[in-house]
Design brief:
By secondary structure, the chain is α/β, with parallel strands linked by helices. 39% of the residues lie in helices and 24% in strands. The protein has a single domain, classed as 3-Layer(aba) Sandwich (Rossmann fold). GO terms for molecular function: ATP binding; ATP hydrolysis activity.
């Protein structure tokens, strides 16, 4: 589905080498995680995968076609096939638009039936369509963002830190929702996070990034159980366990 070869991105004005020789493949239907701390190159990589930026060197191919050097007018197919869910739903949703218009905007027309179908799919009531983003909680707004991303029937969903701004209890719900929707809509998922524990919750395979390079890549359970790189071990040590945190919150609530 996606093939990346020897990808580099340098920003001369800031004298930053954001990506260095990054290579990997993502198969159709796979749940691929990209994990690393702030400044590791995750966001730069996402922009290149979505053809929102151009690499300094290397190639990005989507379904066998190179996209790294295509002009925007030839990327319409990619804009349909690949959608992104961002970290901050309030920042990615127009506060002046009703939910029905937000969700149907990628379709180029208003489609009440499609909006109702998508709201149901993400666990929101149909009457949510007439409300505005500020009338929802953070978790509900992220559900709206997911519904909008699914509207044009993409084959690839990029989730860029989609739960880092949410409470722990809501985080688990959104992760479970994403996992279910990936199966239901036959999606290929690229999930970006700084938290290896969160990636383990939804991904099959993971690439660990540090300073613009992939230092380790493999099945999530293998990387989690027997990390080969010291940096991966550091990430694991720093990552809170989602299930443990939820159990702790439940205990405090019961008390």
């Amino acid at each position: 589905m996606i093939s990346v070869r020897d990808l580099e991105r340098r920003y001369k004005r800031r004298d930053v080498h954001a990506l260095r020789g990054v290579s990997f493949d993502v198969s159709a239907g796979e749940r691929f995680g990209i994990v690393g701390e702030s400044g590791s190159g995750k966001s730069t990589l996402v922009r290149l995968l979505a053809a929102l930026d151009r690499p300094t060197a290397g190639t990005v191919s989507f379904q066998g076609q190179r996209i790294d050097s295509l002009p925007e007018r030839k990327l319409r197919f990619l804009r349909r096939e690949m959608q992104i869910v961002f970290q901050d739903p309030m920042g990615s949703l127009d506060p002046r638009m009703r939910v029905r218009d937000i969700v149907s905007e990628p379709l180029g027309r208003r489609s009440p039936e499609r909006v109702a179908e998508l709201l149901t799919a993400v666990g929101l009531p149909e009457d949510a369509a007439m409300r505005y983003p500020h009338q929802f909680s953070g978790g509900q707004r992220q559900r709206i963002s997911i519904a909008r991303a699914l509207a044009p029937n993409p084959s690839v969903l990029i989730a860029d830190e989609p739960v880092s701004a949410l409470d722990v209890s809501v985080r688990a719900q959104i992760l479970d929702l994403l996992a279910r929707l990936v199966d239901e809509f036959s999606l290929t998922l690229i999930f970006v996070s700084h938290d290896l524990g969160v990636v383990r919750h939804v991904c099959d395979r993971v690439a660990v990034m540090r300073r613009g390079e992939i230092v380790e890549i493999g099945p999530v359970d293998q990387v989690y159980a027997a990390p080969e790189h010291e940096y991966t071990r550091e990430l694991l040590a720093a990552a809170p366990n989602l299930r443990t945190e939820l159990a702790r919150l439940k205990g405090e609530t019961d008390a």
